[in-house]
Amino acid sequence: MKRVPSETLAVWFGSAAVLLAVAGCATRGSVQELRAQIAQVKEQVEELRQAQETTTRELAKTVSDLKGLDGQMTTLAEAEKGAAQKVDRLETRLGETDEAVRGIRGSLDGLSQGLLRRATGPTSAVKPAEPERPQRAGPAEQLYAAALENFRAHQQGQAVLEFTDFIARFPEHPLVANAQFWIGQAYYEQRDYAQALKEYQRVVELNSQGGKASDALFKIGLCFRALNDPTRAREAWRQLVQAYPDTEAARQARSLIRAPAVPVRRAR
Asked: What is the pLDDT of residues 33-66, one digit of tens each?
């Protein structure tokens, strides 16, 4: 075996020591770099966590706000429904009052004519005239009164049948438009707004210059509103205000035209 010189061994050992030193430096540098990267990742994770917490708080606040708005919309819808019911009751009372006034007016006219005939007649009567007895209602008036009584008793189905029979049997009677109006009102109270709309439109066709046309136009607007068609509701009310500006129905229509539209539940 050949012997290696001592000088050569010294060179080898020196080179090995240098390589080990370099390797040790490289290992420490890698560890420090890895630690720096880990620290950077931790910072990014913390930032993401904080951003997630902020987003969660904002989402919770948004959900709370939406619940509050939903409660307000529910309250407004209930208030609108109550107001519509009050309007319906007022309209019913108004119609009954109109009919009562017309009846009283007719009685007064008959009484005035009777007094006038007595005042201008011969003064040498054999005996003083007896008080006039009220005339009995005919079949038409009796049928109309029975139908109206059923309507007031909330028997809408029977009332519709009797009012329809009245219109068919006495098509030229002065109360035909009134009977048609109560047919529409019966369907309206049953929340059949589509059918009520058709019946009220017939009132306008029958009574274009009469007292019930304005009431029917007002109710047509309410039907369109219940059917979630506020544009056509306002059109009906504007037509009412233009055609019958001095009526009570026109006054109410003006208020509804100015009021903001409130969404309602879909009617059948």
From this structure: 888 888 888 888 888 888 888 888 888 888 888 8
Q: Is 42 exposed, middle or buried (0-12, 13-18, 19+ CB in 10 A)?
A: exposed
Considering only residues 254 and 49, tell me which one the structure prediction assigns the higher pLDDT. Answer: 254
pTM: 0.50
CA distance 49 to 41: 12
Nearest-5° Cα angle at 149, 147 to 153: 115
